[in-house]
Specification:
The protein is built from one helix and eleven strands, in the order H-E-E-E-E-E-E-E-E-E-E-E. By secondary structure, the protein is mostly beta strands. It has a single domain, classed as PCu(A)C copper chaperone (Immunoglobulin-like, Sandwich), CATH 2.60.40.1890. Strands 1, 2, 3, 4, 5, 6, 7, 8, 9, 10 and 11 form an eleven-stranded mixed sheet that branches. It is globular. Bound molecules: copper (II) ion.
């Protein structure tokens, strides 16, 4: 499995430098998995996908999860609901963002707690326009919030303080 090791090392390097990964025809960017607390059985993985010639995300696999599904989150009335979808369409040349409150990759039946700052191996399965399957192997960082987002808002701290 020498090739695989080298490939994963390459993915890790690319992830660190924030560069894009080109594998087959689907590019995966800014992937992250939401950390879990002990006993939590499911979590979401988020990323940006773009397929030069169009493709579909049809599923995935991870050694830390019993099942990996493509999910959609939607408001039904005033209730946020999520459900598994058989495929997520990636139109040619468009970036599709999997994010909180929208599409995501769901990791179910978690076998371990996913700690912040660790990484999770995740394989994504795609189908191109002709139905040909391809896989992308990732090492996805675990985080509490989207990396690079306007997250913490630390600068706002103290505004409410009264002396
Ligand atoms: Cu879900």
């Amino acid at each position: 499995m020498k090739f695989k090791t080298q490939f994963q090392a390459l993915v890790a390097t690319l992830a660190l430098t924030g560069s894009a990964l080109y594998a087959q025809t689907v590019e995966v960017k800014d992937a992250w998995v939401r950390s879990t607390v002990q006993g939590q059985k499911a979590t979401g993985a988020f990323m940006k996908l773009s397929a030069k010639d169009g493709a579909k995300l049809v599923g995935g696999a991870s050694p830390v999860a019993g099942a990996v599904e493509v999910h959609e989150m939607k408001m039904e009335g005033d209730v946020m609901k999520m459900r598994a979808v058989p495929a997520l369409d990636l139109p040619a040349g468009k970036t599709v963002e999997l994010k909180s409150g929208g599409y995501h990759v769901m990791l179910l039946d978690l076998k371990t707690t996913l700690k912040k700052d660790s990484t999770v191996p995740l394989t994504l399965l795609f189908k191109d326009g002709k139905g040909v399957e391809s896989k992308v192997d990732l090492q996805v960082p675990v985080s509490t919030t989207a990396p690079g987002g306007h997250g913490a808002g630390m600068a706002e701290h103290g505004h409410g303080m009264k002396h």
